[in-house]
Design goal:
66% of the residues lie in helices and 4% in strands. By secondary structure, the chain is mainly alpha-helical. The strands form four sheets. It has a four-stranded mixed sheet. Strands 3-4 form a two-stranded antiparallel sheet. A hairpin with a 5-residue loop joins strand 1 and strand 2. It is globular, with a radius of gyration of 27 Å. This is Nitric-oxide reductase large subunit.
């Protein structure tokens, strides 16, 4: 107990120091972010764009689809270009021609090598020289650059408008004509794209060959190449990771192996009868399956758009379900169904663990369910209709689609979801409260579950930190607080603690050992994970210190994954501990699969793109998608499925249970995911990485590469894996439908019965029996 208290102390210290550092870095990002000029002027003093127009352009892009329609500074979807890289290349090429015509009287392509070399030097010098005057807030551009910008701006205005000459390009980008109907919005959009590329190429004040985005994207025409810091910190992070893994292995081997306890002769939860609030969670799991099916369907459509652009096997589906909406639903539903499974698990286990059914708990669980259902349906419908009807930037921000990946629902829905998550934490807390107050060996685990739940509810507030006029660098800073810390951080701590708590309840692991192990695991995870958030922000207009901190701490995120295989093996051995454990076979196998995908998806594929030098060339390419699919479903999705199966075991008539459906479900999901990732996404990502390294980021995201025979073949090669995976979701749906059709159990009331934990008598816990 004394050792565990020391671990809790260390956990508190690490959280305070890590979050303090993360907030300090956020302050530095705010102070040193690329400035938005009050005015962009030509040499004659004419206004090209105002600062308000640049900010409005950011809103217009987000309303048109935002990160579901290409990327800015590398974050978003992969079919349309990275607009900052695309603008930068187009402007450099246009400036080459403009300078050639003015200096030599003919296009750049017709010049000899010596003349082209002189023009190249002028282009590089012209785009890198910082002409922003901080005193007046003005950015002044040369006459030649102004002419080049006008040509590029005309292209984007037509692309987001209805210029018929660009129909083919829009199809290649999976764009709809008239994405921005208002001419003022299109003008503002060009200002935002220009500003994002200006920040990517212009040297920071007092620096040489170092842009506001640390020279991202790779663009040889303007001298955008990796900085020395990106290489040095990449090497340092690998050294630290190897050393930390060695230290972890040494620490683990030095600890005495504590054998698992002898399991009970019978399932300790067999006689546990579901309380009314526990029964009320059944419908949550039905919604989980519905969201999975919808998400998979939207994923198939979204992937197909990368070949046909606007159609689905010839049918113009994009007229009613454009790419931006199908991808929004695909990514948003992934988070929602996983979160719903975990929320329902918390509500289910609270009375089971404490033996107490609080008054009106079932009512609260039901109210929360319908509130969450309203939020999901309302946000999806408003996002869909708002995009189709071009309701504008205000509607998109408040009710429709904010255009931000994984956090796309309008602000009103975010407020409602925040309240719902706090209400969920309240319901979970009141259900666990008797167990928290009662001394027991499991109290530390229960406390970890509760604290993680409070953090899940509280940290969703980070989705409310940005507004319509917030600087894009700060939007990205806060968005990754939500995506990384909320989804990848506290939800994982919550799920891990829940799994340990369930295993202790089954008598498969010792409560005292689990207490210390979970706190230690949380320390190791959060030590790298909190500041590891910064690896998403290397090139988003942040100070160079972000590269150093993000590289070192994101490398440490891989360290705990080095021991995942041991834990997975132990879980596999626990399945053989007693005959009755076989009834939990597929839930435990899902947890074992989590270990595999943690190592492969989060570890191998994640670290392959995490170092600054690797991410410099691969940010926004299909290697990111490979890591995302393997980690999101393989880790968090399989966790959600495993927890759902565990809960349904206690909510279902055991005669309705069908391992005949679960076996193909498990193998089809995992094999299908592996096929999808390694047959299609990884080869596509490697091919794009070659294109990025050899010619630049603009080329890796260009139609010439995206719609090359190789890349389109990779899309078609996804089909076998998609089919196998989809069949797995159908088996899961059939299984849940089967168990849901069984009549509900009789009403129950709680009574106190003694429960053995790890073979030793524990305090009496109240469980429910038939009334």
């Amino acid at each position: 107990m004394h050792a565990t208290r020391r671990l809790w102390t260390w956990l508190a210290i690490i959280c305070v120091l890590s979050f303090g550092t993360l907030l300090f870095v956020g302050r530095e990002i705010y102070l040193k972010a690329p400035p938005i000029p009050r005015q962009v002027l030509d040499q004659q003093g004419h206004v090209i764009w105002t600062g308000d127009q640049i900010t409005r352009g950011q809103q217009a892009w987000l309303a048109a689809g935002g990160q579901q329609l290409g990327t800015v500074w590398g974050h978003g979807s992969y079919v349309a270009p990275d607009w900052s890289a695309d603008w930068l290349h187009r402007e450099a090429v246009a400036l080459q021609d403009e300078l050639a015509k003015r200096g030599h009287g003919k296009p750049y392509a017709q010049l000899d090598a010596a003349a082209r070399g002189g023009i190249d030097a002028l282009v590089k010098e012209g785009l890198r020289r910082n002409t922003y005057d901080a005193a007046t807030g003005t950015l002044t551009l040369s006459t030649e650059r102004t002419a080049a910008i006008a040509a590029v701006a005309s292209h984007y205005a037509g692309l987001f408008g209805t210029d018929t000459k660009l129909d083919k390009l829009r199809e290649q980008y999976a764009m709809s004509a008239g994405s921005l109907p208002a001419a003022d919005d299109r003008t503002a959009l060009t200002g935002f794209f220009f500003w994002s590329s200006w920040a990517a190429a212009t040297d920071r004040p007092g620096e040489t060959a170092l842009s506001y985005t640390s020279n991202w994207p790779h663009e040889p025409l303007v001298g955008n190449t990796p900085t020395a810091g990106a290489g040095i910190w990449s090497v340092a992070s690998i050294i630290v990771m190897i050393g930390a893994i060695a230290g972890m292995v040494f620490f683990h081997s030095a600890q005495p192996e504590e054998a698992d306890p002898k399991p009970p002769k019978d399932d300790p939860l067999f006689k546990l009868k579901a309380t009314p609030s526990m029964k009320a969670t059944r419908k949550y799991f039905a919604v989980v399956v519905a969201l999975i099916l919808a998400q998979v369907g939207m994923g198939v459509i979204t992937a197909h758009y990368s070949v046909e652009g606007h159609s689905f096997f010839g049918f113009p589906l994009g007229d009613i379900l454009p790419f931006t909406i199908s991808r929004t639903i695909h990514t948003q539903f992934a988070v929602l169904w996983i979160a719903t499974a975990w929320l329902a698990t918390g509500l289910y286990i609270a009375p089971a663990i404490s033996g107490h059914e609080p008054k009106f708990q079932a009512l609260g669980v039901n109210v929360l369910f319908y509130a969450l259902l309203f939020i999901v349906a309302g946000s999806t419908a408003c996002g869909w209709l708002g995009t189709l009807q071009h309701r504008g930037v205000d509607f998109s921000f408040w009710l429709g689609n904010q255009g931000l990946e994984f956090t796309s629902m309008g602000r009103v829905w975010q407020y409602l979801l925040f309240v719902g998550l706090l209400f969920w934490a309240f319901l979970l807390g009141r259900g666990l409260w008797p167990a928290l107050r009662r001394p027991s060996e499991s109290r530390g685990l229960i406390a970890m579950v509760f604290l993680a739940a409070v953090c899940i509810g509280g940290f969703y507030a980070t989705s409310l930190t940005w507004g319509q006029h917030t600087h894009y660098a700060m939007v990205e800073y806060w968005r990754w607080w939500l995506v990384h810390l909320w989804v990848e951080g506290f939800f994982e701590v919550f799920a891990t603690a829940v799994i340990a708590l369930l295993f202790t309840r089954l008598g498969l692991i010792r409560a005292a050992s689990a207490n210390a192990a979970i706190v230690l695991e949380t320390i190791v995870f959060l030590f790298g994970g909190i500041l590891g958030t910064l690896h998403h922000l290397y090139f988003t207009g942040t100070p160079t210190a972000v590269i150093a901190i993000g590289a070192m701490f994101s490398a440490l995120e891989v360290v705990p994954l080095s021991m995942i295989g041991i834990e997975a093996y132990r879980n596999y051995q626990r399945m053989k501990a007693a005959p009755w454990v076989a009834s939990y076979r597929w839930a435990i196998l899902c947890f074992i699969a989590v270990g595999f995908w943690n190592t492969v998806g989060a570890g191998l594929l994640g670290f392959s793109i995490n170092t600054p030098i690797a991410l410099y060339y691969m940010q926004g390419l299909n290697m990111t998608a490979a890591h995302g699919h393997a980690a999101l479903f393989g880790v968090y999705g399989m966790l959600g499925v495993g927890l759902m199966l565990f809960c349904l075991r206690g909510l279902t008539d055991r005669l309705a249970w069908s391992d005949a459906l679960l076996k193909p479900m498990f193998w089809l999901l995992n094999i299908g995911l592996a096929m999808m990732v390694f047959m299609a996404l990884v080869p596509a990502g490697i091919y794009q990485a070659w294109a990025s390294i050899s010619k630049g980021m603009w080329f890796a995201r260009s139609p010439e590469v995206i719609h090359s025979p190789f890349m389109e073949n990779m899309v078609w090669l996804r089909v076998p894996g998609d089919i196998v995976f989809a069949l797995g979701t159908l088996f899961l749906a059939l299984f849940v439908l089967r168990v849901m059709r069984r009549p509900a159990r009789p009403a129950t009331v709680p009574v106190e019965v003694p429960i053995e934990i790890a073979g030793r008598p524990a305090a009496k816990a109240r469980v429910s029996t038939k009334a």
